[in-house]
Design brief:
The structure holds 3 protein chains of 3 kinds. By secondary structure, chain A is mostly helical. Chain A is 86% helix and 0% strand. Chain B is of the alpha+beta class. The longest helix of chain B is centred in the C-terminal third of the chain and has 17 residues. Chain B folds into 2 domains: 96 residues, Beta-grasp domain (Ubiquitin-like (UB roll)), CATH 3.10.20.30; 131 residues, Fumarate Reductase Iron-sulfur Protein, Chain B, domain 2 (Orthogonal Bundle). Chain C is mainly α. Chain C has a single domain, classed as 3 helical TM bundles of succinate and fumarate reductases (Up-down Bundle), CATH 1.20.1300.10. Chain C is 77% helix and 0% strand. Chain C has 4 helices and no strands. In chain C, helix 3 packs antiparallel against helix 4. The longest helix of chain C is centred in the middle third of the chain and has 29 residues. Chains in contact: A-B, A-C, B-C. The interface between A and C is medium-sized, with 32 and 32 residues.
């Protein structure tokens, strides 16, 4: 881990923290009210707010998780900087693609 | 009392010895007794034997300690004493380790003072109560015993990691206004294996016999390097 | 020589670091699955609806609470680290780590209780 990765890791963490809190509250509220898939999608479809919220969430989480996984790989697996970076980046790209697809799935009108 | 001592190099085994149990006895006393009366081939290091030099650091029942300042009654709680060489360092023989990697990382972290003036210049006035000097003084008493290095999991997991002692020293120098190599030092500790590899486990701080806090020093380095990076200085 | 390493790892802070790392890994495994589930909505409401109904089962709700616990643990543990790294040193780290675990468990338990 160097200063560049560290800054991105901590920065995305700071961005994600409030997003997580909002997300947990929202999902809890939706579950309590027994919202169906149709109810939820009615709220999210065509919403720029939700698109932005979850768009930022997905990007930040993908970056944060990538750097975290890279760290764990360099310390707990035989991989070193380059190999760990490649594997982690692959995982990060996967996260981003799946996440973007999920956001599209719920906000596309 | 039966004690187990590590014999051999990287590959070896624990061998047991029967030593007299005395009322006031340090672990160093035990090791010395074995070498003098039971097995003269035992290799170990010590110097001052009064807790000033740090030479006698070994792993005692799983924890790195100064053996001259560790009373047997405090650690042999179940009548068992297992003594081995410091971890995270190559073993030369028995209880002695090769300290070179420890000191090489010290150099890599730029842990040496670099003068910025000559004897012809006026003596720099350093106020002892300036924030920088207070920060440096809090971390300055390191005697390079390598206990923190031996205790650190990140050192064990990451062979590039410079370690708590080297980074702690770098922090004292970064706070020394007389030093002229701050930029190079920040670069050195901001690189891979530098201060950002620290996960704040705080084993170093828990076990330092001088009550130093490398975790706090490293946190300070993280702040300094982060701002230097964001400002484009490194 | 490896089992000896586990000897002095009873420190609250070492356990906190381990919990932080393991919860992060668990979340990293969970996220792709989470995204795949939400992606069901691409095919319309019905697939997502049937998943939501499936997840109404008590066992699934329990698993969700465990997930929330791991998420809170990772987040609050991370915030504890951000405090160490960005503010001046404060003692009481072990207490802080314990509080993090306690608050995380409390939140997860509270949410679980309110689900039923």
């Amino acid at each position: 881990m160097n200063v560049r990765l560290y800054v991105w890791q901590r920065l995305t963490a700071a961005v994600i923290a409030p997003l997580v809190l909002v997300h947990v509250v929202v999902i809890f509220y939706a579950t309590r009210k027994g919202l169906s898939a149709a109810d939820i999608l009615a709220r999210t479809r065509g919403s720029l707010t939700w698109a932005s919220f979850y768009g930022v969430f997905v990007v930040a989480a993908a970056i944060h998780a990538t750097i975290g996984v890279r760290n764990v790989l360099t310390e707990w697996s035989p991989l070193r900087d380059r190999g760990a970076g490649l594997l982690a980046s692959g995982f990060g790209v996967l996260l981003f693609l799946l996440g973007a697809r999920a956001v599209v799935a719920v906000v596309l009108p | 009392m039966t004690v187990s001592l590590w014999r051999g190099g990287e590959k070896g085994r624990y061998e047991t010895y029967k030593v007299p149990l005395r009322e006031n006895q340090t672990v160093l006393d035990v090791v010395t007794f074995v070498q003098r009366h039971l097995d003269p081939t035992l290799s170990y290091r010590f110097a001052c034997r009064v807790g000033m030099c740090g030479s006698c650091a070994m792993t005692v029942n799983g924890r790195p300690r100064w053996t001259c300042r560790t009373h047997v009654s405090r650690v042999a709680t179940r009548g068992q004493l297992e003594i081995g060489p410091l971890e995270n360092l190559p073993v030369i023989k028995d209880l002695t380790t090769d300290m070179r990697p420890f000191f090489e990382k010290w150099q890599q972290a730029k842990g040496a003072f670099v003068p910025s003036q000559t004897r012809g210049d006026e003596i720099e006035r350093i106020r002892p109560d300036s924030p920088a000097r207070i920060a440096a003084d809090a971390a300055i008493e390191c005697i390079n015993c390598a206990i923190c290095y031996a205790a650190c999991d990140t050192v064990r997991w990451n062979s590039d990691y410079l370690g708590p002692a080297a980074l702690n020293r770098a922090w004292t120098l970064v706070n020394d206004v007389r030093d002229g190599a701050t930029s190079e030092r920040l670069q050195a500790v901001a690189a891979s294996g530098g201060c950002h590899a620290c996960h704040s486990h705080q084993s170093c701080q828990e076990l330092c016999p001088q009550q130093l806090n490398p975790t706090a020093s490293i946190a300070g380095l993280k702040r300094r390097t982060m701002w230097a990076y964001l400002k484009g200085e490194i | 020589m490896t089992l000896r390493h586990l000897r002095h790892r009873h420190s609250a802070l070492w356990l906190a670091a381990l919990a932080h790392r393991l919860s992060g890994l668990a979340l990293a495994v969970f996220l792709p699955l989470h995204f795949l589930t939400l992606g069901l909505a691409i095919r319309g409401e019905a697939p997502l609806e049937s998943f939501l109904r499936w997840s109404d089962q008590p066992l699934v709700k329990l698993a969700e609470s465990a997930l929330i616990f791991l998420l809170m643990l990772h987040m609050f543990g991370g915030l504890r680290l951000l405090v160490i790294e960005n503010l001046s040193w404060r003692d009481g780290q072990k207490q802080a780590a314990t509080i993090v675990a306690g608050v995380s468990a409390a939140i997860a338990f509270f949410l679980l209780a309110r689900m039923f």
